[in-house]
Design brief:
about 150 residues; alpha/beta; Glutaredoxin; four-stranded mixed β-sheet; 5 helices; about 40% helix
């Protein structure tokens, strides 16, 4: 009868350990979801700089006491252009939406809204991206839901 050596037991034990670690890791609700660092916090201030020809964002717009969307967008951003019709539809249904144009040219952004429509209650202009950094935006489009 052959004697069992420790070298024969080690590989199956290591494999079992890896399977156990992987199983524990997969027990999260959604392994691809990243929790926002902003959930439950007060919304940061939005720069008061307005995009020409559009209403400026005021403190009252952000603290309206009702559900409001804050959408960070840019005219050069293909996903922003893809979601624009849905934002127009939501605004037509009465959803208040605040727009923050980031890292864009003022003239290009203004022309985009004039050509494709303006779904925003107010529009802030953030050419250097400082407001988007305060909100934790890495790239447009990004939308936040303010619940009061």
């Amino acid at each position: 009868m052959a004697k069992i050596s420790p070298l024969m037991i080690a590989p199956p034990l290591i494999f079992a350990a890896f399977v156990g670690i992987a199983a524990v890791g997969m027990m999260r609700e959604d392994p691809t979801a990243l929790r926002s660092t902003r959930v439950g916090q007060i919304a940061p201030e939005i720069t008061p700089r307005a995009l020409a020809d559009f209403a400026a964002v005021s403190e009252g717009d952000v603290a309206r006491g009702e559900v409001t969307l804050v959408n960070f967008w840019a005219s050069w951003c293909p996903p922003c252009r893809a979601e624009h019709p849905k934002l127009m539809e939501m605004a037509a249904d009465g959803m208040p939406i605040i727009g923050v144009n980031i890292r864009d040219q003022a003239g290009t952004a203004t022309q985009y809204l004039m050509d494709d429509g303006n779904p925003f209650l107010a529009v802030a202009f953030d050419p250097d991206g400082r407001t988007s950094i305060d909100w934790g935006v890495s790239a447009p489009p990004e939308t936040f839901i303010l619940d009061a």
